[in-house]
């Protein structure tokens, strides 16, 4: 079936079931950002491959609501699908709810699959639409009947990490979690989010591309811990280890049944953003629900000393791989055919040579010239272009290692840059330096760091449509909450031990894109009469290209930081490079 035929088949079912509108979110029963193939519903229905968006279908309109990162990509991928792009004003906001409220009439019904909608979103839909007389049908999967050859759930093996990597045992983590549950007077706690599961049980897998997680749920009380998982994924040794830690293993599908058997009068902590509505509906009447963020989401965001030290070692490995890649690129450009797809393959090979490499932490974004203006671009055989000795090349990539997760963006000059390209590059660099070197008082939140980072761009009337930074997991998801650096007033303090990206950018559609990204660790700075102050340690170790820099746009502090940073890269990576590689890096890292 073509996408237009699939859309017609969905509308036919809507008509048969009396639905005026149908919602297809980008989610799975774990409310994941990145999905197993079985739940790539938006791609199946429309052809859009982005990791954020919502399809809304009526009989006379079909739209994809997504944010600025995907505008150009969506325009291209939706062409001929029957779906239109609807541009979000606020990233991640469910603005389609207001659209539905203004479009539908009293007595109309909106359908969705409750396995793919979070508790919080389901409650918001009810809150906004029910007063208007619009009904909600929450158990409608209109894709499965038309999805021929729909992928099965993944069966990749899972494994446990030792404390020499994680720094804390599952037993200790469960004890900390139970203390939090006791304070919140929660008798039970349901965890669905896969990175929380991976952290709590020191468990990793390969059920989702680029994210080393395992499809699983957990139900925890003061007395018991039940892990719902396909036990065939675990070795006998790992099963014994989990059971020794007091973990009972049950089949993945059993979670609904055990939730339905919870005793009336008990209480359960449910994270409304990280649990699907279908599981929430299984709770019996009389069970008191406490809506709050998973305690583990906060716990895993703050890295312990073992995780931090392992991450520092990982950054050396990743920096060596990137140094060898950029030297290879310079040595071979113009001598052999190099394309966006081939550079991603070469970079992966350099990373794979490093000890403990598991895989990429996301699909490499290799954008030459105009493709760099697409923040989440991924080259395809149709879009792939050859790199020439001209213009800017943007490379956003990352690796998963047993010792940590990396995420780095660099832009390099391939030759003949314009004055505008150099100006934009330098302004982005200024923003990255200012954000990532900020000193700030305890209690500061991400939107404040976001503003500090954007100010050098705002001073020149420039801006970017994505957030400034996101949390990063330890050998886990490259996007990790609860903290973010973006304009949204997220009520989460920046705490010591958090690892976050700082990645401002400037994008000129059909011309070029620039983004420079380092990962930083929140560390103590100073305590005085005005309180406790924090700052950041740069974890990322990779050369920042000085060829595009307009020195006159940088102040003395920024120049000094850039020179010192590039020398630090030489110092840290030097012992792991060949003499030829080190000589190349030293030349590139010369002070400006």
Automatic annotation (TrEMBL):
Pfam families assigned to the protein according to its UniProt record, in alphabetical order: Creatinase_N (PF01321), Creatinase_N_2 (PF16189), Peptidase_M24 (PF00557), Peptidase_M24_C (PF16188)
Similarity annotation: Belongs to the peptidase M24B family.
SUPFAM superfamilies, sorted: Creatinase/aminopeptidase, Creatinase/prolidase N-terminal domain
Ranges where the Peptidase M24 C-terminal domain occurs: 532-592
GO cellular component: cytoplasm
Lineage: Bacteria, Pseudomonadati, Bacteroidota, Cytophagia, Cytophagales
Gene3D superfamilies per record: Creatinase/methionine aminopeptidase superfamily, Creatinase/prolidase N-terminal domain
Transmembrane segments: none
Domain Creatinase N-terminal: 6-129
Originating species: Pontibacter ramchanderi
Keyword Protease applies: yes
Protein name: Xaa-Pro aminopeptidase
Keywords: Aminopeptidase, Hydrolase, Metal-binding, Protease
Statement: the UniProt record of this protein carries the keyword Hydrolase: yes
Domain Peptidase M24 residue range list: 310-521
Superkingdom of origin: Bacteria
GO molecular function (one): metal ion binding
